[in-house]
Input
Amino acid sequence: MTETIRIARFVARPVIVPMNLPLQTSTGAVARAPLVLIDCETDQGVRGHAYLFSITPAALRPLTAMVGEMAEMIAGDELLPFEIERKLSQRFTLLGLAGLQRLAQSGIDMVAWDALARARGLPLARLLGGAPKPVRAYNSKGLGIMPAGAAVDEAQKLLAEGFHAAKIRVGRPDAREDLNVVRAVRKAVGDQVTLMCDYNQALTVAEAISRGEMLDDEGLLWIEEPIRHDDYAGCARVADALRTPVQIGENFDSAFSMLSALSAEACDFVMPDVQRIGGVTGWLRAASLAHAAGIEMSTHLFSEVSAHLLCVTPTAHWLEYVDWADAVLATRLTIKDGFALPSEEPGNGIQWDEAAVARYLVS
Output
């Protein structure tokens, strides 16, 4: 008989860590990563780990506080992620399950799954019924808005880290500059390298169609978030007009949002974000929808956890790799010959470098 495991306590710590490559997108620059580091300790002394990305430092303290409030509600409960998700969803239904509430709940979910995997002595992928295996990965930590020459140099550096794919940020004021950068990078890296581009919601529907048609012959795997993320009707118009597949999904705030997008035929590919979709539990629900729809599903950020999740995703496509938490991690996700290699060690692969955590802790 399996021994009952209970939650002893949670600890949430805010840190702001430097990024190796500051990223300039069409909507602004990101130079530091504000993270909430979450630990879940069980009554057996096992500790699980996960982190959240608050995007802006202004949201770091309230997000940390929200994690703490949710943690108090489930302290002493049995470590059963589906039951934890049900309880927290019920408690926050009237307030709304979006925004900081969704992120905090996803963080609680991720750390609960990690603690359970460690308590069972299994890597997360095996706890979920699969096995760690190589997953295709592209390097997404750079190639922001920059001149063509700088983009070529940065693309070659990103690929030299063991990748055969990278993503270019687009959305410059002049569409011809975007086209020039894409062509310059393609010429430099060759046709064997996979390239994607991301507009970060910068365009109107008409602009997205016009600019997308300019890029249709450039051999891109996908065009990501060309317009406002929740305009599914507009996304459907863009996807229908372009030959290059349209990718959306990092802003789905639940499997229900993803279902709405799929019903509207808003995209060709989906890429949920594990901290917005509802953590591991929400990801599993989204993966079932993608499977039923026959649509390829990639990840957004959170490379360590996401690599395990792709191992149990029926329509697994690409892992988006970033190293934004590396400054506080004692272990790193291994990249080899274009693939991420999730570990067979128990849990999701996250372990803190406590000296680094102390250095970047927000008091």
The chain has 13 helices and twelve strands. The chain has a mean pLDDT of 96. Residues 99-120 form the longest helix (22 residues).
